[in-house]
Amino acid sequence: MNTREYIQKWADSYKTDLTQNIMPFWLRNGLDRENGGVYTCLNRDGSLMDTTKSVWFQGRFAFVCAYAYNNVEQNPEWLAAAKSTLDFIEKHCFSPDGHMYFSVTADGRGLRKRRYVFSETFAAIAMSEYALATGNQDYAEKALHLFEDIQRFLTTPGFLPAKFESGVELQGHSIIMILINVASRIRAAIDDPKLTAQIDDSIDKLRRYFIHPEFKALLETVGPKGEFIDTNATRVINPGHCIETSWFIMEEACHRNWDKELLDMALTIFDWSWDWGWDEPYGGIINFRDCRNLPPQDYSQDMKFWWPQCETIIATLYAYLGTGDEKYLERHRIISDWTYKHLPDPEYGEWYGYLHRDGTVAQPAKGNLYKGPFHIPRMMIKGYALCQEILRREMRNEK
Fold first, then answer.
1. 20 to 30 A Cα–Cα from 390, which one of 1, 132, 247, 361?
2. Is the Cβ–Cβ distance between 113 and 99 less than 8 Å?
3. Helix or strand or coil: residue 110?
4. pLDDT value of position 381
5. Kind and range of the H or E run holding 111
């Protein structure tokens, strides 16, 4: 493999696909030019199936638009879409107690709240990325304030409804891992010590509680002190989620001049999760595994969703950038070949989201309240940026 040619090919592919396929699809079909914000419940051809708006995706779309503007090209249409969606968020997506909705109507009336703070996390990174795009530091301050609200909501007893009955003490991987990325993205716009403190705390919890060498796995749910609990619900491995965590930690290792301890931790998580996730008979990253190799409980356990493939593509590039180990470039080839064979829709554009285990399409819609313009464009933006970093390193090594 000629590394420079290979990486240049993918850099060009990510940029072309992002600018000529993914972003135009969502700006044309999803952007609500009447009320502001974005619709995500789109059929295969981009036609609108439901005007319910996912609040997660208001933040995610605004982030992607600003992130693409900052890292690929300064397209004024992207920046305007980010501003329109941020305006919709600020006007409509916060309930009276400050906790954001999970879904709202087309014109912004609240429909549902959930016990999570993921709407807040994505709104915060959208605000910080918009601050970087525009130089408007007010948005960085808003992002930091929202981050402080997230921490307050999570630590105020009774503010968020409990998932389990009183006396059941479990902790989940999701919020711990996402706060690494949220703090990192906000820190790029406003460097407050509490952001790095959150990253350190999250990484420490992952290391002490969630990484279980006896299974060579990062578990999704553990006891309050990291105890392994032998039930269907707590034996779950989500390979895509773990791989996403691995590149969040690689990103922080890179920020710290490739801190060896962090990089080794991230690579361990990635290597284990690749082994659990890569589906040898059919290819692709599978949804769920059981750490005892028992049948997983989740009905979608053997499906191939779009987002784990995207996270794996990013992780392979980060791992290669951090190590120079050709095995990660080979993994990038393997996951990319499978992903680009099965997920892109050559007729209507964008990507399918839900595949059966053998890679056939389970349902053809391009979006819903959970799939929309985030994982795919983020992968392309991040992939493009990582390819540029790898190419610069290759050029330095040749001198």
1. 132
2. yes
3. strand
4. 98
5. strand 110-112
What's the CA gap between 351 and 345, in Å, rounded?
5
pLDDT given at position 396: 81
Distance between CA atoms of residues 302 and 13, nearest Å? 29
H-run or E-run covering 218: strand 217-218
Mean pLDDT of 118-144: 98
State pLDDT tens for residues 209-253: 999 999 999 999 999 999 999 999 999 999 999 999 999 999 999
Burial of residue 30 (number of CB atoms within 10 Å: 0-12, 13-18, 19+): buried
Give Dmax over CA atoms of the chain in angstroms: 63
**Which residue from 283, 367, 259, 305 is spatially nearest to 26, judged by alpha carbons?**
367
Which residue type does 40 have? Answer: T
State the sign of the Cα–Cα–Cα–Cα dihedral 203, 297, 234, 275: negative
The residue with tokens 């120079």 is: 324
Give the torsion sign (CA, 388, 65, 152, 168).
negative
Q: And the tokens for 196?
A: 């790095």
Alpha-carbon torsion 67, 5, 267, 238, what sign?
positive
| Cβ neighbours around 179 below 10 Å, total | 23
- Which residue type occupies 221? T
pLDDT of 165 over the 90 cut: no
Give 8: exposed, middle or buried? Use CB within 10 Å, 0-12, 13-18, 19+: middle
